[in-house]
Amino acid sequence: MMRLSETHLPRGLEGPAYDRRAVRVGQVHLGVGAFHRAHQAIYNQACLAAGDLRWGIMGASLRSPDVATQLNPQDGLYTCLVREGAETRASIIGAIKSVLVAPQDPAALIAAMSAPDVQVVTLTITEKGYHLDPATGALMMQDKAIAADLAEPDTPATAPGLLVAALAARKARGLSPFTALSCDNLPDNGGRLKQAVLDFARAQDPALADWIERFGAFPASMVDRIVPATTPDDLDQFEARFGTQDLGLVKTEPFSQWVIEDYFAGERPQWELAGAQLTNEVAPWEMAKLRLLNGAHSALAYLGNLAGYQTVDQAMANPAFERFVELLQDEAQSTLTPPLGLDLASYRAELKSRFKNAALMHKTYQIAMDGSQKLPQRLLATIETRLVRGQDFACLALGVAGWMRWQAGDDEQGQPLEVQDPLAAETRELYRKGQNGLEKAASLCSLEAVFGPSLSRDPRFVSTVGAALDALLKQGACASVEELVQKEAAR
Ligand code: CS2
């Protein structure tokens, strides 16, 4: 089977409508996974198609060489499939020029980021890529990876280390800093990235830190598009239909949103051309998205997977789970002040149909990953607000209990289940310490890195989550969700 490339396009599809040879690299992206390829790269493609050829992307992987081996032999080209119901729309994306693998050649990546044409570095490095202390918000200098980068700053492996090395090179060359734009699902992601970079720089060279602080920019952004991991089945189906092998294939939904703080150090692509919203107020967008979409996603991931649902749409097809999502979103919505232009009722209605999009086959297991990094902003912050107001939080608590049950490392049938999480070893240990749900929950709640000092010690929180975990262990996820929904109906 012929592989997708400049000289071999899939049957019936057209290549990008601009001269790729004339495209320059104006942006570097760290963490060039499926999400970036189905989200930010699409916005750059619109800028290129509109004739502004400055905004090609140099992609970079910070860990595995997989994406480089997928995309480089394809001249950076890949197909983006937009799926809903029986409809699939396919387009060839050419915004990524090529992909570097940081661990193979950090110097090449630093050189790319310090090129004069590069104005923006975007990042999707996931929650754990920031290495910030959850309690203080400062960079964890003792963290193994950060300490190693501080010791050998010319061959960094972490995002803060790489960014600072490139910024130092720019300063030495008399260039201005690039804008570093976080696209991770974290509140105040721009502020967090700034903190990580400045702390790293200050430890190395205070004058460099001052320069970055003065001339750099770290805008916040809210990104939203559901991008399930591409499966071998997706690749096979694509080959059968288009007569071409595309190892860089990504699949996603029609919906896409990008809200960006309008604060840049230099030039930037006109992402508005593809619908991005530039604003001075990202926080309320981010909070609504994290608590309504991601909060519901994480709760569905643990409880749904435990109940035997492999995908989000399968869980949503059970009326009890659908109702549970509504009730959980009611709890979350009461803590939100929506930004101008966001109608929460229609946002939630749209979310429901997005979750029900069966064509995506979005795996609950995928969303369950890295829960220790996701829980605070998705579920726990909402609970804190409700506790302060004396409101109940039964659905959020069941979601948290679902995460706790997940730490056992087996499913409800006793089959082993791999917990992919940087804190997996700790959480497993804490889970095992307790004899029953209440004890297990109390044991896990002591983990301040996840729960923070106040929830950790809040007896209402610990006992409510404990009771939910107890119920989960006794009757399973499906019955627990049903019971909760029935109780709410009877109120
Ligand atoms: C999901 C997100 O995997 C997860 O944790 O909740 O990736 C979600 O699909 C995106 O944030 C949607 O924009």
Protein model, in words:
The chain folds into two domains: 20-279, Rossmann fold (3-Layer(aba) Sandwich), CATH 3.40.50; 283-490, Orthogonal Bundle (N-(1-d-carboxylethyl)-l-norvaline Dehydrogenase, domain 2), CATH 1.10.1040. It contains 20 helices and eleven strands. It has helices at residues 34-38, 40-49, 66-71, 106-113, 144-151, 159-173, 189-204, 206-215, 232-242, 283-306, 312-316, 319-333, 344-355, 364-368, 371-388, 394-406, 424-433, 437-445, 448-456, 459-490; strands spanning 25-30, 56-61, 78-84, 87-93, 96-101, 120-123, 179-182, 221-224, 250-252, 257-261, 277-279. The strands form three sheets. It has a five-stranded parallel beta sheet with strand order 5-2-1-6-7, sandwiched between helices. Strands 4-3-9 form a three-stranded mixed beta sheet. The chain has a three-stranded mixed beta sheet with strand order 8-10-11, covered by helices on one side. Strand 3 and strand 4 (87-93) form a beta hairpin. Helix 10 (283-306) packs antiparallel against helix 12 (319-333), helix 15 packs antiparallel against helix 16 and helix 15 (371-388) packs parallel to helix 19. The longest helix has 32 residues, at 459-490. The radius of gyration is 23 Å and the shape is globular. The mean pLDDT is 97. D-mannonic acid binds at residues 185, 224-226, 294, 297, 366-367, 374.
